[in-house]
Design a protein that fits this description.
Shape: globular
Radius of gyration: 13 Å
Number of strands: 6
Helix content: 25-40%
Distance between the termini: 12 Å
Largest sheet: 6 strands, mixed
Number of helices: 4
Number of domains: 1
Structural class: alpha+beta
Length: about 120
């Protein structure tokens, strides 16, 4: 399973002190069927803990996910700031997800080289 972050998500996660270790753990939970909400169109919502806090006071992430293949963290928000994405946001996220999950390895390499995506290292 390859895990990536978009440029926007990378900046947001850094500000929120969301670690790559937490992202890897979230994807492992998804692979075990522990999904908070399947929003359709390869889009999943998953709660993650923020540094020094648990999931209950953590954040929600939006992930473009293709089973046993790739996961892209594309959007995130603090649980205390909002509950969900709007219908229009969801439609845009589903379009983005549909494109991302179809990226080939050469396309991923280009996106990484152009700093559009960052690969999350899964050291375990």
């Amino acid at each position: 399973m390859k895990i990536f972050k978009t440029q926007w998500f990378t900046r947001w996660a850094k500000k929120e002190k969301l670690t790559d270790k937490a992202l890897v753990k979230a994807v492992k939970e998804i692979e075990q069927g522990l999904v908070d909400t399947d929003l359709g169109g390869h889009v999943i919502k998953k709660r993650v803990p923020l540094f020094g806090r648990g999931k209950s006071s953590g954040a929600r992430t939006i992930i473009a996910y293709k089973v046993k293949n790739k996961a892209f963290f594309i959007y995130g928000f603090a649980k205390n700031k909002r509950d969900n994405v709007s219908t229009k946001e969801l439609q845009a996220l589903q379009i983005l997800a549909a494109n991302l999950v179809e990226y080939t390895n050469p396309m991923l390499d280009i996106a990484i080289r152009e700093n559009e995506l960052t690969e999350v290292k899964n050291d375990g």
